[in-house]
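TICKET #2291
ISSUE: user wants both folds in one file
ATTACHMENT 1:
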Amino acid sequence: MLKSLTIKNIVLIDNLRLSYNSGFSVFSGETGAGKSIILSSLGLAIGMRADFSLIRKGVNEGVVTAEFQINKDHLAYKKIINHGLTSEENLILRRVLTKDGISKAFVNDNLVTANFLKELGLILVEIHGQNEKIGLLDSSNHIKILDRYSKSDDKLLEVVNSYNNYKKLNKILHELDSIESNKVNQLEEIKNDLNLLENLNLGKEEYQELIKKRNIMTQHEKIFTALNNINNLLEGEEVSFLSNVSKNSLSLEKVFSKDNKIEEVEALQKSINAILIEGKDILLNISKIRDSFNFDQRELDHIEQRLFDINNLARRFKVEPENLNTIRNKLKDELEILINSSESYEKVKNKLFQAKQTYYKNAKILSNHRKKFASHLENLINKELVPLKLEDAKFEVEVIENVANKENQNGIDNIKFLVRMNKGGVKGEIHKVSSGGELSRLMLAINLVIANSLSKKTLVFDEVDSGISGSVAEAIAIRLLNLSNTQQILVVTHLPQVAAKGKQHFKTFKFFKNNITVTGVTELSYEGRIEEVATMISGDKITEEARLLSKKLLHN
């Protein structure tokens, strides 16, 4: 329910806060006193089109704030939670208009888009009399209203479930259809890839073992090369270290005869001989070590080629080499699916046919149910029109099959609320063929009949009593009171019968403040209501008879 409305710097209102009760609240006051300003302000707060001409002259901005009390089951609560906002029991909508043409919208002090504010506002408030295509006037809501009125939840759920099943199977069939159309190319591509992997025939741990073996053999190769270099240095085919040392040692020995030896040279000769002996030992050890090494260049070349082939395929399939067998198994599965896809395609096609039949069967049951209750709804609403001075009007719920024959989760029906306002007149959508007081009374009749089928919201009626009096006024008043048992009702009225039925009565008036005309609103006490209703009966000059009648109306 709407708890309060705060208006700052809008037209003739400088700063005003109105607190509302649940049930039936009325606004009265002389023409031009500002009742329409209050409705326009509420419209701004709930996201209606921004009208910057509403900003009070001489100020930079106008602000309207509407505070609502909602519970966690309310659609508005669910909407703000889904939008990532938080809320307790109170929901605060705020709209700011600046003279520079800037409009800002806030929900619980969080900046939101004007569109989101409007969507939220439509859940909370419905204003009748402004001829905007919202709420009951929006034909997209009619199917939901009829379904709630006819208690179609179970039947609608059957339609939704069968539609979702049909949609799922249809998607699968399209995917299989795409597979079938590309089947030849896909088969050739998969077989080619699989053939490469099969020919590779990679062992489970082969890649890591090859890496390890290559590292060892590469190390052996380096050792083998180094030993060969040392061997060639010591004893090469051409000039070598040992042969040179041996040759020069002999030359040194010939220079000195046995009788003419030099002690130092003799010591050197012994050292050279020791080097030659050590060199031969080194050559012998090199030979033994080389013989003990298991190095085969051809085997290393084979390992390098094998690793190259493995890495090449890994790059092709964009995976680590160890995962090539996973790719091979995946391709085998895909190949099997492709080979069996024709059989799967036919199975899904048959299931889709059955699902479509089930959908239309459930949709037809729902459609017949809707048509039955559409007739009930028409009769009840048309009965309400006569006492509301709409005796020539005829309300109709149009239920026609979707000519596009396009399946959807709402079933096969297009549903619209239509009305003919005069005998022989044109039948059309409500907002197109009615306006003003007629529209408000028509909305009153519809709301009264479907009150228990609607989500709880604040209903605002403007001009509902335009051009009527007497018994019709009493009929409107009673119906508004009855409707207020299930919904919060705000009514702008000129009729004493309607004003007297309200549980809360606001009076709008104008006064001068600092040489400026300002609109004020006051909530009337019981005594104040007696005077106001009496004024509505007899005019500015209140008679005792008017006061007595006022008390009687209020008492009743």
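ATTACHMENT 2:
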Amino acid sequence: MQRHPYLLPAAMLLAVMTFTAGPSIGQETPSAWQANADLVEKLTRQRREFNYVESKVPKYTLPNPLLTRAGDLIRSPKQWNDSRRGELLELFREHVYGRRPDTDYSLRFEQTSEETQAFDGAATGRGMKAIIQIGDRSFSFPFVVFLPNNASGATPAVIHINNRYFVPLTTALEKPDPFWPVKTFIDRGYATASFHTSDVDPDKKDGYADGIRSFFADGKPPEDTAWRSLSAWGWAASRVLDHLATIDSIDASRVAVSGHSRGGKTSLWAACEDQRFAIGYSNNSGCGGAALSRRAYGETVGRITSSFPHWFCKPFSDYAGRESDLPVDQHEVIALIAPRGVYVASADEDLWADPKGEYASIVAAAPVFRLLGKDSIETTTMPPLGQQRINGQTGYHIRAGGHGLGEVDWNFFLDFADTLLK
């Protein structure tokens, strides 16, 4: 039977496997990561309506990122950039994240505070406000920027989409938090900026009236395919990048966007929509982020769209229980970021986010990186727990512990970022 080339069977991922030299005699090879059997059993008992058993993952095929909807195979970077990339963007806008408005607006920035000798003189910190103007109406959100004081030349930067809380300048200095470890960035030669998602668009089902989406729509209800909160938060990250691009000590061509969980979903989509971002970093992003929807492992499309309907456009919920009908899957989000950098991080105990599905997305996006002349992770087996894997434009690690973001994750990520941004 001839299989339609638009679909990429999961088994065919073996065709892109790469090999490395084996260990010396007497040297043990760390095992590829697998979900802990006791944890799988425990989670299955606790939440029987969701699947945590690998053998129960449904058989699935993935859309081929290099095949257009008309059935034409993309064979050159020009074809990708002129045709397929735009087509994929529109499919995700229509079926998953929603379409951003094309309303004209003006943008300006105000500095609200400054500390020129932060961290014993190592950095300058600034409190900022982004102000968006449409006619006589305005909307604003705060963000914070830290710049290394002792850098020689323009530095790279990381914009962190903080989905937990806003960290004002004084708090960042007085109560360091591993969720956004400013001193770590400074010590490693990076500028960094952060904003809180709910200051842009409230992270709740009934928060529409108070956010940027309602501002752009002048209070009118959103259409089914209009942007939702994830896309709005990513839009805000681009506005922070607009500001960083005005700072002489930052190289705006070397800026990464990062996020954890819902922030990680956002960072990937932000890097799709805005090609100025040099790297998209998602940490424990799971369903609607890096994890393949078709695996239906842990959190599913049905669960996430019913619990967080404000994150995704309405059509995404229509694929609950029929993920294989989606015209796209999350490996194509990673493909849309190519040939730029993508970093994905998982956690051993965070099976809700489907670590295997997150890693598989990177591998399934490799043909696009290859087409664009870049190396990417193609090894189908996952790395061992606590070990990082980097190949060209993509990187991955899975650490011990549960759903969260800390110094271990950041240092792994910055090791990867160093290979592309320094």
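RESOLUTION: both attachments delivered.
EXTRA DETAIL ON ATTACHMENT 2: The chain has one domain: 106-421.
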